[in-house]
């Protein structure tokens, strides 16, 4: 069903665009600051301690105290640093995550007396390509920070950061190819619409392995444990930002949480229906033209409900980021690179081929896109592919813990020692 609400006038469009930019990015920055508190409180819960609890009720004002502390601390710039690049690096680290949030659909369109307002800052037709292009710029900030510091430890951290992020960007890009093979569009609003009305399945089910690969790559791209080798305090003296202080240092930390927020929002949008509310079909709508909505009738309260659902999904995945950081130990650097190039890349390529063959086979058998059977077959294929990825492909051949490798060395020594002692014993026995 099509609903004619009315398009915004040029003046109203400009006014609402300014309001959306100010509100969205203000709320986004508040969420990023709030994640610093959530990180510490959740870490305290996991480690059976209190966490921040002195500044404000239950420590809720701790992010403000941290901000004041960073503003009043001394700004230092190494005498031998390349000052222009040294100052540019923190901004280049944070800006890409800030910009990419602009193309994410946040809620159902909002009807107003001036016309229909899309709940997205910039609904561009190349949404995910825009996200991938700007997200890849974050690596320049980390490498530039290490190089401009003129410090060998910072430089090593920058090199490791660039190698790791470039490695996992390949798998990240390939992991979302099956999404657009099904949707047939790279606009994120159309991705949400396809999950609402396609075959009634959020894409996390028929494309489960894609979601799993996307999550792993997102952890590596945000430099979070167990992929925090660019920092690796125990090895590199804090890595690429060792020479930074005050707000320049804080911008690197805020950039990390900004990437966590944006990655969480992308997971919700690409694989979990975006702002779609499960089961209920009253929110299934999409703007097909200025002021025109296809699907359910828009309403202000639907906009609020879907906005709350989108943020609930985003916050949940942000919690997963925090949970994993304080649960899983750090990988070795060779394990990280092996995982990226020897496991993630071939798996992503193989999965793209499997999904393509499955879609072609379903079409040849007359199973139409949008049917329950179509989604069910893809879900079964994804479950089997994920099982192969988890239990057969790796199978302790590439990613082995330090204790397992030590055990292998001990067994090898025992084996070689027994082999060397046998001839001597046999010779002594013969002599007797």
Describe the model.
It is a single chain. This protein is mostly helical. The protein has one domain. Helices cover 65% and strands 4% of the residues. Strand 2 (110-112) and strand 3 form a beta hairpin. Helix 9 packs across helix 14 (372-393). The longest helix has 37 residues, at 10-46.
Q: What percent of residues adopt helix (DSSP H or I)?
A: 55-70%
Structural class: mainly alpha
Q: What is the average per-residue confidence, as pLDDT, rounded to a whole number?
A: 84
Strand order of the largest sheet: 1-5-4
| Share of residues in strands | under 5%
Please compute the radius of gyration using only Cα atoms: 26 Å
Residue runs with pLDDT of under 50 for 5 or more positions: 420-432
User: What is the overall shape?
Assistant: globular
| Topology order in helix (H) and strand (E) letters | EHHHEEHHHHHHHHEEHHHH
Largest sheet: 3 strands, antiparallel
Domains, number: 1
**Total number of β-strand segments?**
5
Note the quaternary state here: single chain
| Number of helical stretches of at least 4 residues | 15
The N- and C-terminal alpha carbons lie at a distance of: 100 Å
